[in-house]
Amino acid sequence: MDALQARRGPKPKPGTRDTLIRAGLQMIHAEGYSASGIQGIVERADVPKGSFYTYFASKEAFGAEVIDAYSESGQANLRAFLCNTELTPRARLEAYFDDRIEALKASNFTRGCLLGNFSAEAADHSVLIRQHLAVHFKSWSVILERCILDGQKNGEIGSQFSAVSLADFTLNSWEGALLRMRVEKSDAPLFEFKTILFGLVLR
Predict the structure, then answer these.
(1) For residues 30 and 175, what is the distance between their CA atoms, to the nearest angstrom?
(2) Are 38 and 23 in contact, with CB atoms under 8 Å apart?
(3) Domain spans in the chain, listed from the N-terminal domain onward
(4) Helices marked H in 122-162 — which ranges?
(5) Contact (CB, 8 A) for 148 and 202
(6) Cβ distance 89 to 148 under 8 Å?
(7) 9-17 — which CB contacts under 8 Å span 24+ positions?
(8) What digits encode the pLDDT tens for the residues 81-113?
(9) Is the pTM of this model over 0.85?
(10) Which CATH class, in words, describes the domain spanning 1-56?
(11) DSSP letter (8 states) at residue 142
């Protein structure tokens, strides 16, 4: 009986889950979480709507996995810069933010950070999404903290404040600058962030 039941109906295609997450990430990043409906996501992914519920219990659960996927990709990029021992710690940080500013300019300042966007839009309304955001923000801070600590050890970053506090401040300030960037459609908030961070905070 079980074997007969297993043969009934189309089986999910391999990779459908990842296809849905990629489609959802692109759509939510461009249009926002609330404006991105399940129907639009499955159409973008070119899969039947029923496939969505094969993998995700709800839009909220899907959103949490989109956050995970975005953060994992972003952290990989962050590590690529901040673990580059060919540069000094301060230079690694500058290179990372320069790279991000160029990417944001290329996208006409329209998207910002998906973690920040979710925080503004959904964190007050979903415990699950808020929990995922908190975990990933902490992970980003830890990567920044290790680089800043290296800079404190070699003397190019002051030790008046702990590496933990400086990492949190850096991330918090960057996220705020991204929000202002989207409002003003300008890189001015990003360059102001960078000028103060490297001219005053990390010195």
Answers:
(1) 17
(2) no
(3) 1-56, 59-201
(4) 127-153
(5) yes
(6) yes
(7) 12/51, 12/54, 12/55, 13/47, 16/45, 16/47, 16/51, 16/54, 16/55, 17/55
(8) 999 999 999 999 999 999 999 999 999 998 899
(9) yes
(10) mainly alpha
(11) H
